[in-house]
């Protein structure tokens, strides 16, 4: 099994349709089938699928919202498959928050697999962002921030406005040293904040002088984050 192998759970109430889809995806992904979300719980709980392909038929309209809520609780990437972009179940799925869909009349198995992989990547990235912010919340109770691998500010919580005197949206994309102009601990020199970040080590309760307002000092904590391959994220 390679790192690009895709394990898909197909949910389709029509046996003939499910067979066609499984045959088509056979060369692109490992695919298991269940006739309903309720029947799919065993695989979802066991972690037996990375992405869900939910094939919605016209008769599924009444339960579309419920299906998607259950799948969201299962924490999996979900792609909705509909026969026609005008199909009512597709509109209901989009209202319920699904971001991807496939049109049977236009998209073949290869495109289905590509869309499922995109959904899997986006879902994994969203989970990583959530985990990073939860970890940051443990380090900073009043305001939160993120910098990317270049030490550019990518996110600042609303309370950051009171800290820096600027709206968070106005600070995004600026170098981190604009915010943290100089470290005060142990008189380490003007390059101290940059060397601190380059060390890629956690730090706690370090006092900085902000470069955005003369005479304003802040205390900050930080923790580095890495992807699954050990690459530095910020």
Notes on the structure:
Helices cover 38% and strands 20% of the residues. Strand 1, helix 1 (15-25) and strand 2 (30-34) form a beta-alpha-beta unit. The protein has helices at residues 15-25, 37-46, 64-73, 88-95, 109-139, 160-164, 168-171, 176-179, 192-198, and strands at residues 7-11, 30-34, 51-55, 77-82, 101-103, 145-147, 153-156, 182-183, 203-209, 217-222. It has 234 residues and is an alpha/beta fold. A 5-stranded parallel β-sheet has the order 2-1-3-4-5, with helices on both faces.
Write down the Rg. Answer: 23 Å
Unreliably modeled segments? 183-188
Largest β sheet strand count, sense and barrel closure:
5 strands, parallel
Query: How many β strands by DSSP?
Result: 10
| SSE run | EHEHEHEHEHEEHHHEHEE
Shape call:
elongated
Task: Tell me the distance between the termini.
Answer: 31 Å
- Note the total helix count: 9
Main-sheet strand order equals 2-1-3-4-5
- Percent in strands: 15-25%
Structural class: alpha/beta
Question: How would you sum up this structure in a few lines?
Answer:
The chain has helices at residues 15-25, 37-46, 64-73, 88-95, 109-139, 160-164, 168-171, 176-179, 192-198; strands at residues 7-11, 30-34, 51-55, 77-82, 101-103, 145-147, 153-156, 182-183, 203-209, 217-222. The chain is α/β, with parallel strands linked by helices and 234 residues long. The longest helix has 31 residues, at 109-139.
Strand and helix layout:
Layout: E1 7-11, H1 15-25, E2 30-34, H2 37-46, E3 51-55, H3 64-73, E4 77-82, H4 88-95, E5 101-103, H5 109-139, E6 145-147, E7 153-156, H6 160-164, H7 168-171, H8 176-179, E8 182-183, H9 192-198, E9 203-209, E10 217-222
Parallel strand pairs: 1-2, 1-3, 3-4, 4-5
Antiparallel strand pairs: 6-7, 8-9, 9-10
């Amino acid at each position: 099994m390679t790192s690009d192998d895709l394990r898909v759970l197909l949910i389709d109430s029509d046996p003939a349709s499910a067979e066609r889809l499984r045959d088509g995806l056979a060369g692109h992904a490992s695919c298991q089938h269940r006739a309903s979300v309720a029947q799919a719980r065993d695989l979802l709980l066991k972690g037996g699928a990375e992405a869900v392909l939910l094939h919605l038929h016209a008769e599924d309209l009444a339960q579309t919202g419920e299906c998607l809520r259950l799948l969201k609780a299962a924490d999996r990437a979900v792609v909705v498959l509909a026969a026609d972009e005008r199909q009512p179940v597709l509109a209901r799925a989009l209202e319920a928050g699904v971001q991807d869909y496939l049109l049977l009349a236009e998209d073949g198995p290869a495109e289905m697999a590509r869309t499922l992989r995109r959904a899997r990547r986006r879902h994994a990235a969203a989970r990583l962002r959530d985990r990073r912010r939860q970890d940051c919340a443990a380090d900073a109770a009043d305001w939160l921030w993120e910098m990317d691998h270049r030490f550019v500010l990518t996110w600042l919580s609303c309370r950051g406005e009171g800290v820096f005197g600027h709206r968070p949206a106005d600070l995004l994309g600026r170098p981190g040293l604009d915010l943290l102009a100089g470290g005060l601990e142990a008189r380490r020199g003007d390059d101290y904040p940059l060397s601190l970040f380059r060390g890629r080590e956690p730090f706690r309760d370090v006092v900085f002088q902000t470069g955005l307002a003369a005479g304003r000092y802040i205390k900050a904590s930080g923790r580095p984050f890495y992807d699954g391959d050990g690459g530095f994220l910020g």
